Amino acid sequence: MAMATKLVSSFAVFPILFLVIFEVPKTEAQDTECLVEYGGDVGFAFCAPLIYPPFCYTRCRGDKGSKGGRCVTGEGNKYKCLCDFCTDNYKPPFDQILSGI
């Protein structure tokens, strides 16, 4: 009888483990899949921090159909605009200041 319950328990555990392993959600897209360069050295005016929203953000949304855009500084003060197709996490500078109050 003990052997029969052990066998039934084994048959019950394996399908459950099989389902758990294959139903694990897949990982989200990597940053390399989310961020696409808008186009070369766009210049400081395209990424100026005091303009809200920056041209990089609005152009990526309008021209490329992305959710947002962010600027990064490269070698020799060259600015690159990266269009973000996964998240829209842009916060204006004054929101960051007010959230600290």
Automatic annotation (TrEMBL):
Main location, first listed in the record: secreted
Gene3D superfamilies with a match to the protein in the record: Knottin, scorpion toxin-like
A molecular function (GO) term: sodium channel inhibitor activity
InterPro entries in the record: Scorpion_toxin-like_sf (IPR036574), Scorpion_toxinL/defensin (IPR002061)
Signal peptide: 1-29
GO CC terms, sorted: extracellular region
Compartments it resides in: Secreted
Protein name: Defensin-like protein 2
Gene coding for it: LOC108854078
